[in-house]
Amino acid sequence: MLLLRASVRQSIQTKAAGESAPFLLFGPTNQVLRSEQVAGNHPKIVHAALSGIFRWFCLTMGRIKDPRLFSQQFGIDPSKISSLGLLDPILNGDTRLFIDPVLLRSSRNSIIATEGLKNFADHYGSIIRLLSNSGSHNDLAWRNAARLFRLNELPALCLGFGGDTTRGRSVDNATQARILQTAKEIVDLGIRDPELFSLLGLLESGVGPDTIGDMTAHAILPALIKITIHAAGELDVRVKDAHIDGYEAKLPHNVLSDKPLLLVPLDILRDLPVASDWSDISRAAHENRVIRDRVNALIGDIWRLKLKEQKDQIRTSALSSADAFRAILDAAYQLSDDSYDFKSDPEGHRIFREALETIASRFPLKIVQPTSKNGSELRKVVVQLVDHFKMLIESNGINYLLWDSGKPRKERAAQRLFFAIADAYCKANNIEISPEADSGGGPVDFKFSSGYSDRFLVEIKLSTGKVVHGYSTQLKVYEEAEKTVNSIFLIVDVGGLDRKLESVLKLRNESLSSSGIAPDIVIVDAKQKPSASKR
Which residue range forms the structural domain that includes residue 391? Predict the structure, then answer.
């Protein structure tokens, strides 16, 4: 366990006095070592890194603050929701998962496996019939197909890229027209299978995970409504009259968005739909010799194409013949049981919920209420939260949440875990400081709810990540900032840092020598530890 802090104010004062600007390292026994003392043996006692907090923060799409789970709002044991095979949604922010049409046929939810599949086939079967009857763009049959082809988000699902809102988004008419035109070309090849719509994200630019999920949700909406009604009864959740996309039903009400709520089976969710990741389809096909040989014979070198760079070429190859399209469709459906794995949880969606629900009660922390709203008081709270996070990981065994089957979960899992823990303790202590973060992970941003506008950022980086690049980027942010930057870089050490450390320390010392400032650095030892019997 190691904590490195370099006070911005202290560094500036030291530099002004004409001294070198050492950084302070607090070791496991709180001994203080100057930088020159650790130069020879830093791989053993120092762990440090830094990353581009503010650059990333400016680019982030959607942010979540004060997350509230369905189970929390309605006072439900989360395990009961899990036993029904349903996602426990965040009511005031979208979970970055997507309904994938490829997964419908293998769902273990009986309503999806029967009615949901039929809903999808009927909905897109109607569109296919209209497109096959269309003689020209924008004729009557085309317009009727466009009317049925709805791509707007369903906020009741609380899924997608939305961040701290579930109010929905829309797809522009030009994008809808391009998608329909591609579907028309497929229909004209003689393909009448409604599942052709599962591949449109692969073939058409501007069709991302959200759009794929939305077009599927609209098609299977009657099934989702039925699932939610059944779950509400099982969970004893109060319902009220609701209107969704032309349907009327009694559904749970999301008081945070003032909209009805739909519950979604876990096994139709993916972190990226199949049609947005060509590498997954390529992998699936290569694992099936018959399908691989079919595609190779029909399309050849398509496997070497990259989706983002070569989508036009993939589209051309797939639309070259009916047999070529069917071969790719069959390859995609090799992944029909490849839903997001909530057990291994590589992205941290499950551990985020677990931390929100249980950590603060299992390991209480008393946070002193800020005496005023200023940067000093904000820093005190954030530092206390960071230190407690360290203790939970290093001393209380919570590091197990960062590992699965001997391998560390992704960096986003660590980021989501810290955010959930920070939010849980802020709520438990009823303080006027709220952390917020992007729905996909990244820095956690702390600020007072009112009265003081400055923020304090904590970025979480896994030791296996791009530590040196991140550190270099962050130093540029510090040099260009017009006022003091308040931030902590928190590195979760799961191993593999030693070689990167030499470069990071060199960059850091150069920055302190030239400008006298550097961000605070906190290190958390999250490496797996042998059991007592093996020590």
Answer: 2-46+344-534
Q: Please give the C-alpha separations between residue 484 and each of 141, 180, 381, 452, 464, in angstroms, as whole numbers.
A: 62, 52, 18, 15, 29
Which residue matches tokens 């006095």? 17
pLDDT in tens, 402-460: 999 999 999 989 999 999 999 999 989 988 887 877 766 677 778 877 767 777 888 88
When computed from its CA atoms, the radius of gyration of the chain, rounded to whole angstroms, is 26
Could you give the CA distance from residue 443 to residue 419 in angstroms, rounded to a whole number?
9
Tell me the per-residue pLDDT of 290-324, one tens digit each, with 9 for 90 and over.
Answer: 655 665 565 555 555 554 545 667 778 788 888 88
Q: Which of 275, 293, 322 is the last residue of a domain?
A: 275
**Final residue in a domain of this structure, among 254, 275, 296:** 275
Tell me which amino acid residue 435 is: P
The whole model's pTM is what? 0.75
Distance of alpha carbon 299 from alpha carbon 277, whole angstroms: 18
* Cα atoms found within 13 Å of the Cα of residue 354, Cβ hemisphere only: 14
Count of domains for the chain:
2
**Does the residue 317 lie in any domain?**
no
C-alpha span between 401 and 363 (Å, rounded)? 15
Distances (CA, A) of 30 to 25, 239, 529: 8, 55, 22
Q: Please check whether residue 159 is in contact with residue 86, taking contact to mean a CB–CB distance below 8 angstroms.
A: no
C-alpha dihedral, 414 to 338 to 328 to 194, nearest 10°: -110
